[in-house]
Amino acid sequence: xxxxxxxxxxxxxxxxxxxxxxxxxxxxxxxxxxxxxxxxxxxxxxxxxxxxxxxxxxxxxxxxxxxxxxxxxxxxxxxxxxxxxxxxxxxxxxxxxxxxxxxxxxxxxxxxxxxxxxxxxxxxxxxxxxxxxxxxxxxxxxxxxxxxxxxxxxxxxxxxxxxxxxxxxxxxxxxxxxxxxxxxxxxxxxxxxxxxxxxxxxxxxxxxxxxxxxxxxxxxxxxxxxxxxxxxxxxxxxxxxxxxxxxxxxxxxxxxxxxxxxxxxxxxxxxxxxxxxxxxxxxxxxxxxxxxxxxxxxxxxxxxxxxxxxxxxxxxxxxxxxxxxxxxxxxxxxxxxxxxxxxxxxxxxxxxxxxxxxxxxxxxxxxxxxxxxxxxxxxxxxxxxxxxxxxxxxxxxxxxxxxxxxxxxxxxxxxxxxxxxxxxxxxxxxxxxxxxxxxxxxxxxxxxxxxxxxxxxxxxxxxxxxxxxxxxxxxxxxxx
Length: 480
Ligand SMILES: [Fe+2]
Ligand SMILES: [Fe+2]
Known about the structure:
Layout: H1 2-8, H2 20-38, H3 49-76, H4 82-102, H5 108-123, H6 125-137, H7 148-165, H8 171-192, H9 213-238, H10 243-249, H11 255-263, H12 265-285, H13 289-298, H14 320-324, H15 327-347, H16 352-355, H17 357-360, H18 368-376, H19 396-413, H20 420-436, H21 447-464
Helix pairs in contact: 2-3, 2-4, 3-6, 4-5, 5-6, 5-7, 5-9, 6-7, 7-8, 8-9, 11-12, 12-13, 12-19, 12-21, 13-19, 15-18, 19-20, 20-21
The structure holds fe (ii) ion (FE2) (2 copies).
One fe (ii) ion binds near residues 270, 299, 405 and 480.
């Protein structure tokens, strides 16, 4: 609960922009949800003013609830796409339509819990809980009567799925959830309602002749298993980033990561160390650890386009930048590691949230080393030409990666006998320079969080100093 509370408190500066046409589609679906959830109030004859009033009330209530659901999803996922919002409200529409069509035949558990699982996996627990509350409280057909105990079981099961769904880290755990929740619902219905009698169901003939809580629970298990089968399809159509998908991408046997380890071993080592720094810092501030670990793994894949142009892969041999002796061209090679990285991301169908780490870890940082060289050569060129194209980090996770990227080379190059105070000073200087340069302006990192990040980096430095490898000099750190 503490974690959820903290997530809900994340301030958001820049909500994702949604195009007009998408806004219109979303609005129309919300209207449709409101219509199908309320039109039955108008079907009574003779129609009285109180009926029109209760229709209007229900219509407005559902419309506002749908709006709140969208706002909650945006708040929980600042980078949510319009496709994902459309998925959430389409699921709500599907649930309302199903209720209208077959509410008297199947248990509400099978209608509400499976979509809640999809939403919690893709969009998080808070959005899933908001979905569950709207879907549970609005019943389009006033004639449908729901037993209080069943309603209670529905809320408990749906809340458990919403809370656990967002934390599940493997497909195996998902399968376990789809077995244990129906067993739990069966036992609780057996205790609270009684076997064989189900007030919601008049004429249920699914699986068992007279329909009872056993067939309800079996149906729930079957629908949940089908949902799990379809989750990978939802992932690719709607760009959902589930924990299981994140962990799959973090597999070091993935072809792109294998290539990185073989063709750019220095960058691969740098990447692993950054993963450690970023993970520790993210744990300290309560961010998304799986996201940052995977993002860190792919942040420099663009270096594969020319591995030996980056200091960490040079192995002490000659530096092609010295031979080139053209700071402007060298700056272009550095920028290319971002542009090529984005191309690799597209080719390998990396989710957008992972691809964002590629440009944002460099932000609009200055390539100080080459800018200095250009000044030495008296080249009359704008400073901005020696800055990465950005954007600056838009989330806490990408900002942490930028800071880890900046500190990694400096910590690695630091004397083995350096004290903790010296290490903290180095870390603080690097972080302060990024802050002063405005790189953290859009990241929403608070001062307290930056303090925690510094402590986390120091902890990792203490851990690695005994087994670190010396890397050529610190003056070439601008190559990172
Ligand atoms: Fe980089
Ligand atoms: Fe890097």
